[in-house]
User: Fold this.
Amino acid sequence: MIEVETTLADTDNGYVLEDQIGHLLRRAHQRASAIFQEIMTEGLTPPQFAALVKIRDFGTVSQNRLGRSVAMDPATSQGVTQRLLAKDLIKRKDDPDDRRRTLLSLTPEGESVVERLIPLGKQVTAETLDPLTPEEQEKFLALLARIT
Amino acid sequence: MIEVETTLADTDNGYVLEDQIGHLLRRAHQRASAIFQEIMTEGLTPPQFAALVKIRDFGTVSQNRLGRSVAMDPATSQGVTQRLLAKDLIKRKDDPDDRRRTLLSLTPEGESVVERLIPLGKQVTAETLDPLTPEEQEKFLALLARIT
DNA sequence: TCTAATCTATACGCATACGAACGATAATTG
DNA sequence: CAATTATCGTTCGTATGCGTATAGATTAGA
Assistant:
């Protein structure tokens, strides 16, 4: 994570960067990603882990539908899928019913990896929320979900 | 922004992706960026606008210090600075007191752009927070700032 | 003072992230 | 049924964002 230095002489002007939601979201996301990288193994990134968990939930899913379910652009899905394929965590086959589609599913290794990493995922969530009390955490998540 | 499709058959397992703070932060940040793009002009990105505002606040600042103040890696600062230079919104000169440094400041055009765009920045913030009531907004920002 | 640690800017590689465009295929609709 | 539309996966271009490495400059400490 990046050490942030405070501005000493804010010329202000009615617009303080540090009060803007976009800037705060960017920094909070930065911190969450940094915690993820520290805790998670297998060289998995947050989007890769999210995709993996979702594929497990679906069992079998097209690349496009996977992308929609985790809020990834088709172009982004493409890259994430490629990297999971390269790690042999997922496999693909043509959809017999729709020749435009490719169906994704976990490999046996992918399944065991997901199961093994889910506890770490919970640890990431806990550490990211650590600065807040349990009540605050609940309140915060509820509000955050609404501006999503 | 990306249309998110809900999983129908969550095999769950004690780990629901949609409840994880990292995933929610990623999506909220996505949405905030999308709103920014819709409203802002000049082809400025959120980090570019943040840097511009900060340079205005500082008056004159080294590239490195600018980066720290907006939570950007030195490598990232580099790219953002390059693009602002290419748009002629900022200028650079060598620091006479420290030959490692380069001092950044706004060009006249940069100054007028910042002043013109700040109202749009406020609009972005307002729209991003729109799903929440004013009291909720205040509470949310306070909590968000603490996990930053 | 002279060396080691730090700081600054830069460069490269990898991974999101999105817009735009494209070819192939499906679905719709007139 | 033919023509238009929509969907799916892919590729290209641009912009963060971080890790790592490097080189020059500066500072701190022995």
Summary: Residues 2, 30, 33-34, 37, 62-64, 74-75, 77-78, 98-102 of chain A lie near DNA strand D (CB under 10 Å from a C1').
